Auxin efflux carrier component (Xanthoceras sorbifolium), 355 residues
Amino acid sequence: MIGGDDVYKVIVAMVPLYVALMLGYGSVKWWKVFTAEQCDAINRLVCYFTLPLFTVEFTAHVDPFQMNYPFIAADVISKVIIVVVLAFWAKCTSKGSYCWSITSFSLCTLTNSLVVGVPLIKAMYGPTAVDLVVQSSVFQAIIWLTILLFILEFRRSSAGLITPSSSSSNSGNRVVVDDQSKDLEESSNEISVEESSRPKFWTLMRAVWLKLAMNPNAYACIIGLVWAFVANRWHLEMPSIVEGSILIMSRAGTGTAMFSMGIFMALQEKLIACGTSLTVIGMVLKFIAGPAAMAIGCIAVGLHGDAALPQSITSFIFAKEYGLHADVLSTAVIFGMLVSLPVLIAYYAILEYVN
């Protein structure tokens, strides 16, 4: 059972994150240290330098030969369920939206496993369960965040290849698509694009792959995993000069991501940037829909239950960089970490009672 000391350990892990968040918020809202352009530069620093090196650092230290593959299979099944449901919603319902499906996938499936998950799971189930959390984080970085990055880059490239001149001949408007501030779907409602003006598939894919090749997030986890295989197969240690070079930036990954989120909050008119209704929907997706899908996945492979963790900070950084519902993701991160402790304790008590 979770005791006071265990709760304190979780609080110790979470408070520094909010210190970084408040420093970012205050630097813009109260002290006027950064301009809006400088804030964008800070987010790009986090997206292209600190987070990729953070990913390399924790991925390189896993043991791929000791992974719990039934647990990974359950995780895959749960995410496939979410993808199928969201795809059906976007395609077959009047209120369906592919852009909101991307955001909903992030809310349901991408978790802040390392920062909050490790101390919580260790308190609930012991050191053995911590290995599962780390494995889940590695698999999330390798597969799901990479897929998310591909989809976001595909969306941005699609908008970029639809030129205002080609669309204006069909609609009569001089409409400019700004993919950093508007959803692609909303933009497409304003312009009419015929088949002669839509970007060819292979032209679009070439643009996407070129962009991904220049984005270190696309291959950071692959580099880390390759080293993990080599190191564990032949019992090698990473040269200290290489490890030191990675650590000097990776240690700042989580802190700078929270700082960037605080800056983003300060630039919004309201503290809860996305509004009350979207906040409630986000929390339902995170703490009900996500765990329900994971429970189904666990049952399918013969494992016992799981709990919900707060929103992945990386998903917010990607949303901010690619201009897709960053307000919703930032709110999910903040409220997710605030309510994660009582929610997880409630899940733990329920699972203990059921078992």
Remarks:
- Residues 163-173, 175-195 have pLDDT under 50 and may be disordered.
- The two ends are 14 Å apart (CA to CA).
